Amino acid sequence: MTFQEQILEGIPSVLPQPKPYDARINHAPKRKEILTDEEKKLAVKNALRYFEPKHHAALIPEFKEELEKYGRIYMYRLRPDYEMKARPISDYPGKSEQAKAIMLMIQNNLDYAVAQHPHELITYGGNGAVFSNWAQYRLTMKYLAEMTDEQTLVMYSGHPMGLFPSHKEAPRVVVTNGMMIPNYSKPDDWERFNALGVTQYGQMTAGSYMYIGPQGIVHGTTITVLNGFRKIGKNPSGSLFVTSGLGGMSGAQPKAGTIAGCVTVCAEVNPKITKIRHEQGWIHEIVEDLNELVIRVRKALENKEVVSIAYLGNIVDVWEKFDEENLHIDLGSDQTSLHNPWAGGYYPVGISFEAANEMMANHPEHFKIEVQKTLRRHAAAINKHTTKGTYFFDYGNAFLLEASRAGADVMAENPTLGREFKYPSYVQDIMGPMCFDYGFGPFRWVCCSGKPEDLAKTDQIACDVLEEMMKNSPAEIQQQMADNIQWIKGAQQNKLVVGSQARILYADAEGRTKIAEAFNQAIARGEIGYVVLGRDHHDVSGTDSPYRETSNIYDGSRFTADMAIHNVIGDSFRGATWVSIHNGGGVGWGEVINGGFGMVLDGSKEASRRLESMLFWDVNNGISRRSWARNEGAMFAIKRAMETQPLLKVTLPNLVDESLL
C-alpha cells in the first residue's frame, strides 16, 4: 500500500502482524500498577472499542500483556510501517488543505528525531502525548484525510470523537487534553484514568500538534540565559551555567548556553537521550567521570571557551562535587521533568538508571522516598553555592514546588504572596517583566513545503520586518527587538531545525501580525508554499500557571485560569485553524491550564483577515490581564495597543499609595 492508501485505511479490517519490541528506540518507562483487576478489565474493554468484534479474541491477551508489562495499552501492533516524519503538504491525501497541514504537524510531533518516546506516542516531558494509542492515531489521520472545510474534528484527550458539520470560518480541529473535574487532578488520578484510556497528558505543544523539537524552547532559553547574566552583571564569556535535563524541552539548554556564549554543564541520567543530543550537535562533549568534568570545566573557563558539556549522571553529584572543589557556578537552574517526579521525570541519586526504572515500576513508594531524599540533597547543594554568589532560578519545571513538598530548605524566610520560595521562577525575574508583560512570546511557524529554502526566505522576511519596526519602536522594547533580530540572523548557522522546516521567534502582537502578513503576501506571490503559524503555550496569554507563566502575577489571581480559557475561545472564532486546551503542562497535572492554536496561511485575503484579528487578541488578552495585576510593563503595553486600535478599550487599574495602606 502507498502512504496515502495507508492513511485512508485508518484502522485496518485485517489486523497487521504483531511488531517486535525495538530496544534501539528510547521507550517510556513502565508506568506503575495502579488499576484494580476490575479496572484492568475495563481498560481492555475500552481499548477494544476501536476494533471489530471478530478481532477481540486475538487482541484481549495482547492488550492484557501490554497493560501488565508497560502499564498502558499502546497497541504496538498498529504502529504504521511508513517512516514517521513531516512530509510536504502535497504528499497527504485529503479534501482540505488545512487538514493536510494538521496531518503534517501530527507526524512531525512523532518524528523519531523529535519525539522522546515515539513508539509510545510521547513527544516530550516523559508523558506529553499526541495520542494514547496507535488506533487513535490511525483513526485521526483518516478523519483528517476525509474531512472538508465545512467540518470540524473533535478530539477528546487523544480520542477522535468524530467529524461534525460546521462552516469554513470554524476551526478544523478542536482539541482538549486532560480536562478533569478539579477534584480528580492529582498525579495518581492521571495514572489511573490514562491507564483506563479515557484521558491523557497533552503537555503543552505535544497534544496540540505544535511541537518543533528543542528549537521551540531554545530561543526562550537563550533569552533567559542572556538576561540571567545581564541581571548579575556578568559577561557570559568565561562564565559557567550549570543545569540538568537533555529531554525534549530541557535539551535546548546547552544549545542556548552556546548561543549566549558561556560554558554549559548539563547533567542527564539517560544514556540514549544523551547520545541523541550529542549526535544532533546540541551538546559538544559527553563526560562520565566527575574528576574529569572538574578538570575540563576549569580549562574551558580559563580559556573562555564556548562549549556545552553533558555529564552522564545525576545532577546532585555535580552540584556537590563543584562545591567540594570550590568551582564557582555563575548561573544555575534545573529543567528535569519534575512535573512528573514519580514516573521518570526525575531520578534519585546513587542509584543506576536501570535500577531506578525497575524501582519506579515495581516499588513506587520506595522510589518516591528516594526521589524526595534526592530533592533535599539537591536543594542543600544549591544553597551552598548561592551563599558563594551563584544566581539560581527555578526553570518552571516545578523544582522548587516538589522540593518544598519533600521538605527541602527552599522556602523564603519572609514569604509574600507570589514570593514563597527563596529562589525566583525565571518568569518572575526574567521572562515575565522583560518579555511577557510587553507581549513578547514564542511565535513560531512551519513551512508546509518541507523545503529548507522556504525556511530561509521566511527568516529573511521576518528579519526585514523586525529591522523596519525597530526604527520606530519605543525605548522600553528596544532590547527585546535587538535580541530577536540577533536571533533570527543566527538561526541558520545555529542549525536549529530538527524535524520539520520550522522556526521560533519571540515577537509581540505587532511583530507577529506584520511577519504573518508578509508571509501571506509571499505565498500569494508564489515565492513560498503554505505556512502554519503557531506558538508555544508558554506565552503571554496562553497559559495560567502559578509557578511558571503567571508567577509574576501578584494580585492573587495567579491561581485562576480565566485567561487561558478565554484565549482559546477567542482564538476559535477569530480564525484559528485548530485550537487546544489542556490540563497539565511543564509544571504538572492539576497545576496549570494551557491553550494553543495553529493557523494555516494560504495567501488568501481571508487568511490576512483572520491573522490580523486572531493574533491581536491572542497576545493582548494576556497583556490586559497582566496590566490589571498592576504589572508596569503590561500597563505600558496595553495603553500602546489601545492607541493603535481604536476598537480596543481595556479596564485599567488605579494604583494605591502604599503609605495609605
What's the CATH class of the largest domain, please? Alpha Beta
Percentage of β-strand residues: 5-15%
Task: Supply Rg.
Answer: 24 Å
Domain module count: 3
Global geometry: globular
- The number of strands is 19
Largest sheet: 9 strands, mixed
Could you please describe the fold and organization of this structure?
The longest helix has 24 residues, at 605-628. The chain is an alpha/beta fold and 661 residues long. The mean pLDDT is 95. It has helices at residues 3-9, 37-47, 56-70, 97-109, 134-146, 187-195, 215-231, 252-260, 271-279, 290-302, 315-324, 353-362, 364-386, 399-405, 426-434, 452-470, 478-490, 509-524, 562-574, 605-628, 632-644; strands at residues 122-124, 128-129, 151-156, 159-165, 173-177, 240-244, 263-268, 285-287, 307-312, 331-332, 391-392, 411-416, 419-421, 441-447, 502-507, 531-535, 543-544, 578-583, 593-601. 55% of the residues are buried. The strands form four sheets. Strands 3, 4, 5, 14, 15, 16, 17, 18 and 19 form a nine-stranded mixed β-sheet that branches. A six-stranded parallel β-sheet has the order 8-9-7-6-10-11, sandwiched between helices. 41% of the residues lie in helices and 14% in strands. It has three domains: 3-138 and 154-163 and 173-196, no CATH class; 214-426, Rossmann fold (3-Layer(aba) Sandwich), CATH 3.40.50.10730; 432-646, Urocanase superfamily (Urocanase fold, 3-Layer(aba) Sandwich). The protein contains 21 helices and 19 strands.
